[in-house]
Amino acid sequence: MNIRYKAFALGTAFLGAVTMMSVGCRSYSDVAAHYSNKHIKENNNQVTAQIPEASELGYILMALSDIGNTDNEMIDKGSPYYQEVMSYFGRFKDHKAVKLINRDLKQDPAIFTHLRNGLYAYRFNDRNRMVLKTDYRIDLNPIDLRVYTGAIEDFMKDSKFRSFYKQHEAFYNDIIKQESAQLTMNAVSANMTKRYRTPFNSYQVIMSPLMKGYNSSVELDGRGFRECLIFAQTANQVMLYSANQAVVQNAYND
Fold this sequence. Notes:
The protein is α/β, with parallel strands linked by helices and 254 residues long. It is 44% helix and 14% strand. A five-stranded mixed sheet has the order 1-8-9-7-3, with helices on both faces. A two-stranded antiparallel ribbon has the order 2-6. A hairpin with a 5-residue loop joins β4 and β5 (130-132). The longest helix has 14 residues, at 146-159.
């Protein structure tokens, strides 16, 4: 595997192109805070870009779904990484995890953002089980993610997803490194205060090489610590999303 990641420059042409995309809206319930002293200490006054393992698996499942195949804004299908994902996981498109997501997306397309956002609260432990992270909870999420966890665990094991993720860690880290260079606390705070009146102590930027549109953010508050989860493909989209006051309404907004 040898995939190169190219970060976009924040220019007029890029802004014009991305403005045509859906920017989503704020969500207050998909993830909730359960902060430890450790989390508060380590994340205060920090912006953290990341491609979490559970979140990336969620995007792969979305890419395999019927709507992921037909919708032109959900998944970025123009990259070598997408082609590699489809080549590696394509034989699992009839897996029960994909069928479950297919069923629910067809009933309610808003499941996309609720599931995508809620998966950020999860991690995989040493036993290959999905468990909640120490500092987050999902009991306020409009959907019951416990319905999905068993099927997602089976998909992870059947497809050997964790091996795929590990093989691509250098690629993910390259994305994180390039985006982190733009995501300074001052830059993100200046833009996000255009959408939120009260400043945040921490920003967690969740990305995926498969993400294309439907940016969104989740406002969290616990123990006097305010944190914003931002779901965006690139740092430039974080800035555009936060600066754009006009919310574009569509079926996938949270």
